[in-house]
Amino acid sequence: MKNTLIAPSILAADFANLQKEINMVNKSEADLFHIDIMDGVFVPNISFGMPVLEAIKKHAKKSLDVHLMIVDPDRYISSFKKLGADVLTVHYEACTHLHRTIQAIKAEGMKAGVALNPHTPVALLEDIIKDIDLVCIMSVNPGFGGQSFIEHTYDKVAQLKEMIRRNKANTLIEIDGGVTNKNAKQLAEAGADILVAGSYVFSAKDSIATIADLKAITK
Ligand code: DX5
Ligand code: ZN
């Protein structure tokens, strides 16, 4: 089958030992670092901001997949480019002029991602799917790690896969929230290209082995 990418979510890392956690991801079979930026307005939580991202960038040896859970993300697109983001994902629900925002992210040389909250239908992306490098389907309500996976996600992956095919787009499908060894295989089979996993990876006794296991079961 295909190579499903695994993106450990740093939100679940031990921030007092961040360098150690980053080195663990560097050494593992993980493909990307998933970085959750929350502003306390778009979501009811504040995670971390620019200085922490700068510190992560210093040690990370893999691409940075930055997930902005903030209102009006256009204000910070060039800042996140300077901080080293490779993929910059904004929320559909946070953008009034989504097409313009996507163009601005690409103009900075980053891949443009759009995240959908669980209540947001995939069909709303039909007219711009060809412009989007990555769609992040939220499989929990954004704001916190460690929540349980919403089962309706499988239907959304199938719908999105079909939309991508119909439009001859090259968009990647990412799943974010509640990913474990219980749902990873089914998600990969439904068409997911990238699986984000936070608490499942970082709360494991052996995070490197857990990442290897996720890679193996989604091959
Ligand atoms: C949720 C974040 C997720 C979260 C995933 O708002 O966007 O990336 O860190 O964490 P788990 O895998 O613990 O659900
Ligand atoms: Zn995320």
* Net shape: globular
Q: What is the CA-based Rg, rounded?
A: 16 Å
CATH topology: TIM Barrel
Structural class: alpha/beta
Helix content: 25-40%
Distance between the termini: 6 Å
In short:
This protein is α/β, with parallel strands linked by helices. Helices cover 33% and strands 20% of the residues.
Task: Please tell me about this protein's structure.
- The chain is an alpha/beta fold and 219 residues long.
- 33% of the residues lie in helices and 20% in strands.
- The protein is built from eight helices and eight strands, in the order βαβαβαβαββαβαβαα.
- The chain has an eight-stranded parallel beta sheet.
- D-xylitol-5-phosphate binds at residues 9, 11-12, 34, 36, 67, 140, 142-147, 176-179, 196-200.
From the structure above, extract its key features.
isomerase; binds D-xylitol-5-phosphate; Ribul_P_3_epim; 33% helix; alpha/beta; 8 helices; EC 5.1.3.1; 20% strand; metal-binding; eight-stranded parallel β-sheet; D-ribulose-phosphate 3-epimerase activity; binds zinc ion
Write the layout of secondary structure elements.
Elements: E1 5-8, H1 18-27, E2 32-38, H2 50-59, E3 63-69, H3 77-82, E4 87-91, H4 98-107, E5 111-116, E6 134-138, H5 153-166, E7 172-176, H6 184-190, E8 194-197, H7 199-202, H8 207-217
Parallel strand pairs: 1-8, 2-3, 3-4, 4-5, 5-6, 6-7, 7-8
The structure holds D-xylitol-5-phosphate and zinc ion.
D-xylitol-5-phosphate is lined by residues 9, 11-12, 34, 36, 67, 140, 142-147, 176-179, 196-200.
Cofactor: Zn(2+); Fe(2+); a divalent metal cation; Mn(2+)
Binding site for a divalent metal cation: 34, 36, 67, 176
InterPro entries: Aldolase_TIM, Ribul_P_3_epim, Ribul_P_3_epim-like, RibuloseP-bd_barrel
